[in-house]
């Protein structure tokens, strides 16, 4: 019985002699395709077993390339793909700070030898996919703010948005969440009422709930914390502070 050939896609910022050498060495062991047009990543994901991202030497020094790298990782993760990264060792820590989710993927320092690359690819085949990210539900009647927060955190988490408390309850009857970001002040059914309903249901009682509030006075904070949520976040919080806070909670 013939062994199924695995499909590997090499994602490159620019095709080069080095990339050509890697492609040639991998061909035979795998079905290999080189992707230079990053917009094609999602389309290739269903038929790709592992994406090998070959990073340029200056990726951590070029803002445009950094942003492209972030989008590449986000697209592969969103599609549930598996990744292996090849880059300069001196930039690994910096890239981890910019795109923390890559810590879950195999990293190889360049230049890389086939004797090292092939076992790493084999290991990547059996590794957890990006689809294993924690799921966060944002409940906020302001879709603009909720959308901004989703953009901030979508590289690290699966993010869903509902704009009303009742919608949150209906959502959680069908799906689960690892954490809920809940607007404190909403019309019809406000944050405290939603929290109370969540606590009354066995399926949702233990989901961590963090209040989103636009008021940071001592009295307002005391009122929020009296309900004993898992925490609270001011809506003026920056992207970096929010990510740090969520990492601590999850």
Secondary-structure topology with pairs:
Layout: E1 7-12, H1 17-26, E2 31-35, H2 41-44, E3 50-54, H3 63-78, E4 83-87, H4 92-98, E5 106-109, H5 114-125, E6 135-139, H6 143-153, E7 158-162, H7 165-174, E8 179-183, H8 191-200, E9 209-213, H9 218-225, E10 231-234, H10 239-249
Parallel strand pairs: 1-2, 1-3, 3-4, 4-5, 6-7, 6-8, 8-9, 9-10
Helix pairs in contact: 7-8
Using only C-alpha atoms, the radius of gyration works out to 22 Å
Briefly note the CATH topology name of the largest domain: Rossmann fold
Question: Termini, distance in Å?
Answer: 45 Å
Shape: elongated
Which structural category fits the helices and strands?
alpha/beta
Low-confidence sequence ranges = none
Strand content: 15-25%
Tell me roughly what share of residues is in helical segments.
25-40%
CATH superfamily annotation of the largest domain: Response regulator
CATH architecture of the largest domain: 3-Layer(aba) Sandwich
Q: Tally the helices: what do you get?
A: 10
Mean pLDDT: 87
Query: How many domain modules?
Result: 2
How many β-strand stretches? 10
Order of helices and strands: EHEHEHEHEHEHEHEHEHEH
Largest sheet: 5 strands, parallel
Report the CATH C-level class of the largest domain: Alpha Beta
């Amino acid at each position: 019985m013939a062994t199924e050939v695995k499909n590997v896609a090499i994602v490159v910022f620019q095709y080069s002699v080095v990339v050509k050498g890697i492609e040639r060495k991998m061909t035979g062991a795998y079905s290999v395709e080189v992707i230079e047009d990053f917009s094609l990543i999602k389309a290739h994901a269903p038929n790709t077993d592992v994406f090998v991202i070959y990073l340029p030497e200056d990726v951590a020094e070029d803002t445009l390339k950094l942003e492209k790298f972030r989008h590449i990782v986000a697209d592969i993760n969103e599609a549930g793909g598996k990744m292996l990264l090849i880059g300069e060792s001196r930039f690994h820590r910096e890239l981890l700070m910019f795109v923390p989710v890559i810590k879950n993927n195999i990293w190889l320092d360049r230049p890389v030898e086939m004797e090292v690359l092939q076992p790493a690819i084999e290991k990547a085949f059996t590794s957890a996919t990006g689809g294993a990210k924690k799921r966060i539900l944002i409940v906020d009647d302001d879709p603009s703010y909720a959308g901004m927060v989703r953009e901030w955190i979508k590289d690290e988490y699966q993010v869903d948005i509902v704009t009303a408390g009742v919608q949150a309850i209906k959502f959680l009857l069908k799906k689960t969440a690892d954490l809920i970001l809940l607007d404190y002040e909403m019309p019809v059914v406000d944050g405290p009422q939603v929290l109370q309903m969540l606590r009354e249901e066995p399926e949702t009682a233990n989901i961590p709930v963090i209040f989103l509030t636009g008021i940071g006075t001592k009295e307002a904070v005391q009122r929020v914390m009296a309900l004993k949520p898992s925490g609270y976040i001011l809506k003026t919080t920056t992207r970096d502070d929010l990510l740090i806070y969520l990492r601590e909670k999850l």
